[in-house]
């Protein structure tokens, strides 16, 4: 059961965000102004309609400079519904996907946004309730079997205050596409997805690639090939295990470039053929 202190640690500023000045108290009404709640304030004047200025979107309302408009009817507030975002981070293993996700989440939190992180409960390598990068950076998270249970687990009040949701190891969530469309399109939240785009055979892994058509941005990260040091875009499995979902680290996987991925597969195929032929010979002798 999640306690109140536990909820605070998971949702960060959701329950402790500083109060801000009401939006209407920031304006004198002598010039037209367009107010966009999420991304800031667009100011234009009658004297020079082509002039506009975007106020820092990371600023809180209380830090906006006072602007003037002619009358109250010229202030339009664009509501957040339908104004969410989806950002996808993909790449092979050891490319820094989790590190990048953590940096993005920390940046959003430091800018005053309420955040939460979800990861698959299948990944217990560094503990069940933390998201941890390979270099040891970590943040608390929600370990879930599926994304559809998040709203209920989080609670309607806490969920309504959330602004940014990070998803790590996204390839393990079958309902990833449905969750992202609902959260971004209908709930107006920012979703940052990090996961493998391909498996050890360079085939589509899970539903990560399905989210790209609805994404605002897609970041493809690369690692360093362990065999030559060049850019690595692929993950080579060192063992003969053929299961697609095999959660492990450097003892099983390594990032490789295209050349060494192909040659590595050739070596594995040759080794497999030799082992199979030896097995046949042994059986024939017996």
From TrEMBL:
Pathway: Purine metabolism; Pyrimidine metabolism. The keyword DNA damage does not apply. GO terms for molecular function: ATP binding; identical protein binding; metal ion binding; thymidine kinase activity. GO terms for biological process: DNA biosynthetic process; response to stress; thymidine metabolic process. Keywords: ATP-binding, DNA synthesis, Kinase, Metal-binding, Nucleotide-binding, Transferase, Zinc. It is an enzyme of class 2 (transferase). Its EC number is 2.7.1.21. It catalyses: thymidine + ATP = dTMP + ADP + H(+). InterPro entries: P-loop_NTPase, Thymidine_kinase, Thymidine_kinase_CS. It holds the Pfam family TK. Gene3D superfamilies: 3.30.60.20, P-loop containing nucleotide triphosphate hydrolases. Belongs to the thymidine kinase family. This is Thymidine kinase.
């Amino acid at each position: 059961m999640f306690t109140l202190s536990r909820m605070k640690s998971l949702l960060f500023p959701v329950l402790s965000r500083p109060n801000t000045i009401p939006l209407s108290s920031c304006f004198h009404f002598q010039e037209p102004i367009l107010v966009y709640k999420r991304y800031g304030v667009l100011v234009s004047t009658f004297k020079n309609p082509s002039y506009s200025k975007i106020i820092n979107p990371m600023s809180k309302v209380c830090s906006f400079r006072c602007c003037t408009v002619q009358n109250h009817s010229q202030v339009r507030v664009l509501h957040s519904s339908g104004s969410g975002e989806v950002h996808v981070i993909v790449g092979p293993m050891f490319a820094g996907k989790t590190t990048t996700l953590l940096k993005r989440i920390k940046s959003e939190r430091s800018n005053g946004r309420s955040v939460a992180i979800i990861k698959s409960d299948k990944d217990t390598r560094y503990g069940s309730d933390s998201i941890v990068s390979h270099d040891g950076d970590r943040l608390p998270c929600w370990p879930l079997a599926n994304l559809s249970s998040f709203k209920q687990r989080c609670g309607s009040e806490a969920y309504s205050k959330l602004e940014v949701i990070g998803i790590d190891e996204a390839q393990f969530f079958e309902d990833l596409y449905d969750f992202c469309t609902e959260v971004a399109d209908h709930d107006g939240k920012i979703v940052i997805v990090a996961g493998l785009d391909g498996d050890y055979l360079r085939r589509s892994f899970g539903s990560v690639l399905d989210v790209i058509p609805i994404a605002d941005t897609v970041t493809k990260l690369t690692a360093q090939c362990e065999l030559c040091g060049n850019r690595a875009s692929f993950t080579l499995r060192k063992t003969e295990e053929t299961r697609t979902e095999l959660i492990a680290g450097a003892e099983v996987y390594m990032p490789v470039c295209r050349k060494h991925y192909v040659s590595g597969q050739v070596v594995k195929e040759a080794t497999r053929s030799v082992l199979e032929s030896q097995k046949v010979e042994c059986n024939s002798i017996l």
